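Quick one, probably user error.
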């Protein structure tokens, strides 16, 4: 790859521009409820959600934040009033979830609920202890119809985690009201901050309305009452820093050990500069690029053993390692997947399962090839073979959307519906049922045929306007910020961070056993 070429420079400039847009949206999540509410929170002597996380983590250890753009493009605050991610506490990788009390008092809206579900899935799939940093007024009541019924899953997930041997810890810094009271109530360990934590099913106004009883916050649900009388609090902290200290001590005493194989300690860094990743993806995703250039800047020592290099060349497959963890890599080369690529992928996925090796999917696909020749050659059953292999594979999967991820190719490359352990996107990524121009064209052809069958003259001006509207809509709905806001990925990452993010993800994955499938469904040959 010529990093001095004009095309490379243009790609790099476009990527940096997109990264600046992403950074601006991330800043909205970090800002929480805004300056007014942040200042009010600080005047109460309280730490912000991310400050609590920073104190909780081991010094100088990383924090892999998840779904930071949740709720983007909706009427709710970017970030969904919740911070989730994976961090190291006393040497143990934990799923950490912190409500943001500067956004409507930390109340849960529908996107908070969805973000919580995704975090719980990640904890369960990767066998991670969970630490909840709690300060929430419960459900955002005007949206209760979208929260109440599905929201019960949050408490179900906590109890299932405990039953599966994954400890759950609640550090309560403020209000934990109504349904939110069950979060500490169902956790294995509970720490409450003296004179600050308030945990009750019904606050004084609700108790007054329901029973006529007069009560105050402290006697009804104060930390000291729960530590001395109800027994809900296992530890009583004098302040927030003390609560975090107690939480770290709980994790330290878990005697936690990983069940997956350990990484090789003597791996090499890639031979090529990660900076180059900024200029690889063309601004026009219809222009193909060589994914080997990405692989060479992500895997250990740029050492990649390609599998079937001369067969099905639109899909690159092969073996490598990332931060000492062995992986199999599937990367789209020319965009379109043909029958050969599908068969090659199915075989490769089976081989990875045979040797218990995680798989990394690098997306740049426009989908499976269509046309009479390809239908007659069996593209449906070949594509189904690849999707079958992905669906029934038991080794952990990680997906990175680099460029296009359209149609059934998104499925075959382990899109969100196929439960990759983690799925991240570059700012250049786009995903939809098909490209905007193709989708608008299909609708135009169908509408034209319908008019003809009715004997009506087709309105070309109307067709032009319809196509422009549809293309604009699909383009907007294909963009990474829209998809990230919908929680269809776990975050948009800087391409230069791909190796680090995959390494952190692989480390988290190896908290649990890594074992391949013992059998697959019927492959149509």
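Nope, works fine. Designed sequence:
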């Amino acid at each position: 790859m010529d990093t001095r070429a004009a095309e490379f420079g243009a790609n790099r400039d476009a990527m940096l521009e997109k990264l600046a847009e992403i950074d601006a949206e991330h800043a909205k999540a970090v800002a929480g409820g805004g300056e007014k509410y942040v200042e009010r929170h600080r005047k109460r002597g309280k730490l912000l959600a991310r400050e609590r996380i920073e104190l909780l983590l081991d010094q100088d250890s990383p924090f892999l934040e998840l779904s930071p753009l949740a709720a983007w493009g909706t009427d709710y605050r970017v970030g969904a009033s919740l911070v989730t991610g994976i961090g190291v506490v006393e040497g143990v990788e934990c799923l950490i979830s912190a409500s943001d009390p500067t956004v409507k008092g930390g109340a849960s809206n529908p996107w908070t609920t969805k973000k919580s579900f995704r975090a719980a899935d990640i904890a369960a799939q990767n066998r991670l202890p969970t630490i909840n940093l709690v300060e929430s007024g419960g459900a955002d009541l005007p949206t209760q119809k979208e929260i109440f019924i599905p929201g019960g899953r949050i408490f179900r997930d906590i109890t299932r985690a405990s039953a599966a041997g994954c400890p759950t810890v609640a550090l309560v810094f403020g209000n934990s009201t109504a349904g939110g009271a069950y979060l500490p109530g169902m956790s294995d360990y509970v720490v409450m901050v003296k004179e600050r934590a308030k945990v009750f099913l019904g606050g004084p106004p609700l108790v007054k309305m329901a029973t006529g009883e007069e009560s105050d916050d402290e006697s009804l649900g104060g930390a000291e009452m729960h530590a001395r009388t109800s027994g809900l609090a296992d530890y009583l902290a004098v302040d927030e820093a003390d609560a975090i200290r107690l939480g770290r001590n709980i994790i330290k005493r878990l005697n936690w050990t990983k069940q997956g194989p350990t990484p090789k300690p003597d791996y090499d860094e890639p031979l090529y500069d990660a900076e180059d990743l900024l200029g690889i993806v063309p601004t026009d995703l219809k222009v193909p690029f060589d994914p080997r250039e990405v692989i060479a800047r992500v895997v250990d020592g740029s050492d990649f053993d390609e599998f079937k290099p001369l067969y099905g060349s639109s899909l690159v497959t092969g073996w490598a390692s990332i931060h000492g963890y062995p992986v199999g890599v599937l990367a789209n080369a020319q965009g379109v997947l043909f029958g050969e690529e599908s068969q090659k992928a199915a075989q490769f996925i089976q081989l990875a399962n045979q040797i218990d090796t995680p798989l990394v999917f690098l997306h740049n696909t426009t989908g499976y090839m269509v046309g009479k020749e390809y239908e007659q050659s069996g593209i449906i059953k070949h594509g189904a073979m690849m999707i079958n292999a992905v669906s029934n594979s038991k080794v952990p999967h990680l997906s990175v959307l680099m460029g296009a991820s359209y149609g059934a190719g998104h499925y075959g490359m382990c899109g969100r519906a196929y439960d990759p352990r983690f799925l991240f996107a570059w700012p250049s990524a786009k995903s939809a049922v098909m490209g905007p121009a193709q989708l608008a064209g299909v609708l135009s052809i169908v509408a034209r045929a319908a008019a003809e069958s009715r004997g009506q003259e087709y309105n070309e001006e109307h067709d032009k306007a319809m196509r422009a509207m549809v293309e604009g809509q699909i383009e907007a709905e294909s963009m990474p910020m829209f998809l990230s806001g919908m929680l269809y990925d776990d975050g948009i990452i800087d391409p230069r961070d791909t190796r680090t993010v995959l390494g952190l993800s692989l480390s988290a994955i190896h908290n649990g056993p890594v074992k391949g499938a013992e059998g697959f469904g019927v492959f149509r040959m």
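Residues 445 and 463 are 10 Å apart (CA to CA).
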